[in-house]
Amino acid sequence: MIDFLNSIIVLLNFIIIPGISYGSQLALGALGVTFVYAILRFANFAHGEIMSFGAMITILFTWFFQSQNIGLGILPTALLALPVGIIATIILCIISDKFVFQYYRYQKSVPVVLAMVSIGVMFVINAIIRIIIGTETIKFSDGQKFIMKAKQFKVMTGLNEGLALKSSQVITILITILLLTFTFWFLQKTKTGKSMRAFSDNEDLALLSGINPDRVVFTTWVIVGVLACVAGTLYGLDKSYKPIIYLNLVLPIFASAIVGGIGSPFGAVIGGYVIAFSEIMVTYAYKKFFVYILPSSIEPTGLVQLLSTDYKFAVSFSILVIVLLIRPSGIFKGRVL
Amino acid sequence: MMKFERYEWVAIIIMISLFIFVGFIQGWSVSLVILNMCIISAIMTMGVNISWGYAGVINFGVMGFLAMGGLAAVLVSYPPIVESWQAGGRGLGISFALLVVLVIAVMYINKTVIQKRNRYILNSLIIFFGILIIRHFYLNATHNIEDVNPAIAGFLGGLGLPIIFSWIVGGLFAAGVAFVIGKVALGLRSDYLAIVTLGISEIVVSVLKHEEWLSRGVKNVIGLKRPVPYEIDLQNADWFINLVTYLNSSKLNNIVDVSDRQQVLNNLIIDGSGIFVKLSYAILFLIVMLIIFYFANKAQLSPWGRMMRAIRDNETAANAMGKDVVKQHLIIFVIGAAIVGVAGAMLVTLDGLFTPSGYRPLRFTFIIWIMVIVGGSGNNLGAIFGGFVIWFSWIEAAPLTTFIINQITVGLEPTNSLKLHLLDSVPYFRYLFMGLILLLILRYRPKGIIPEKVRHS
Lengths: 337, 457
What we know:
- By secondary structure, chain A is mainly alpha-helical.
- Chain A has 13 helices and 2 strands.
- Chain A has one domain (2-326): Orthogonal Bundle (ABC transporter involved in vitamin B12 uptake, BtuC).
- The mean pLDDT of chain A is 87.
- Chain B contains 19 helices and no strands.
């Protein structure tokens, strides 16, 4: 029985909790990509950089608050700076739309051209971030790091295995729940949300019924800005902030959005968790788990690892390819909010 | 034969004069280094242009195909490591044979078992257990190979042939990978295809990074043999010394003192040997580029090229006219990838080393796409022009930015923190330039600087 509990704790500690927090970050990112795809109808390659930008502004203001000795006690100061980051990210989104994307929308350009344009935007934001903050790794989480340390847990329960719970993980999960609830409530219950859904379903019909397209687009960018900034900041808070990582993060985010069914917000969230869990589960070495759960006569000698951790990113793409082959529309049929 | 319009001549002259200009300002050695990379970039750009410009097939897997070309350079030119083959050759052979058996078994099941559900179950069972068995042999073998002298070897080595053959092999490797990708992904919509090819190229690179028995992974392969002479050999070769003396005879004759003259001559020889090596590379690359350019243009003007444009402009209509759109898309995707693979092998040849961790999408996929868009998709000269201009500005952005920053902040003290910060971040301004160039071109000249010629034939 103790062995069984131990094995469960191992899974919780190394797979489930990291999976949920990484999955939440991916889900928020994928939700942003989905909004752009469903309303503005293009694949936004700049999304990773928008996330990075939001995180950067948050970091800058975190530093400012820290220098003024303003803090939240046991909570990280970054939470205080997050609203500023969100506003800055929204402004960035609106500016990039006004100066860049709007023109192509009025021209009714094909989606590929808009994707190319978003690559241009990606380069520009990328450069701005590097010029402002450099390329170094930045750790900006402060306050109490752990809610529960592995050792405390061992003492508390008397088990062999520890369960560590980082505060950044809990914050990530709580904020994600909050934000997702709000987004879905907004889409289903408010008038603006309904008009957005109508717009994404059938643009011409939506225009005929008097929906103001500029307003819909504006709201979309606001939501995208909020989601991107929060996702970027949470990712940086949980791991650490490094500009280059966000470029690599675009690919798993796209994978999540497509796996879930691109254009479907619910699918994007599910896709985020699917990708996160498969990345972690395929590359985790299950030796410890099996040592607890199996009798000692048939204990495994190797690591019992399906793929080495080096292939983490490759896993998300393999899943993407498999899903596209078997079910091209994704898990949930997408295209409409 | 093709005829150039006047603006195309202008473009060619601009390209040549750029290098002469740099040659006079920064020295011929710098100019030739940039020229070599420009030629390679131009070849990559032509590869992408063939699939995107001719047929509208998007290929964001440039990085992966380049890496395959690089792998070819290693496998062709590196001398074989006998100990590694002895240590793990048999295990690898067995696992490879088992893999073939597995594939045949899956194909057999697909043919014979009609019921869909049974087929899925049988297939997944056979694949699961097959992979378990193969892994056993494979992991043992690779482990043994990686243990052979890990500091300098630890992989299988190559064939020990002249590296120039790898340019063809690199094309074949890339074409093989492209064939598989194309079979899987080409039915997708263009923006999905972009993401999928980008992802698969990421997978290719991560395989090269971590399968050390094959490519030495992140430990890099260094010291690949060159197809051109080494500087040190040139400096001791009589004919080269005579050549340098002859070329600089007027300058040397003016120096009276013998030891001074020897000193000057030695310096000239050292400089000259470097330039000679780069020049030989440039000539080799130029030959490849012109061959590809010639055939690419021929193909574009042929009935096949016309069919490709028809498919690009209206897929449904082309399909209705009896053209096999799926097959042609696959063909052109493979051809484009093969050309990129050639460029990849050339890149490794030029560097003399293979560093899998150096393949990053920003540098090797997106920049190439900027070259295609800026140059003008559907026009091969445009592709070359784009490759030259963008690589040139990529390199020259740093000195230019330093100059501009110094001009703007001339009133500030040299210890001013803003000025120092800006000067520190000079390398990142090139991304800003690239993004702005792309956005401006897409906005104001969406067909590129040298647009595709409209043909009424």
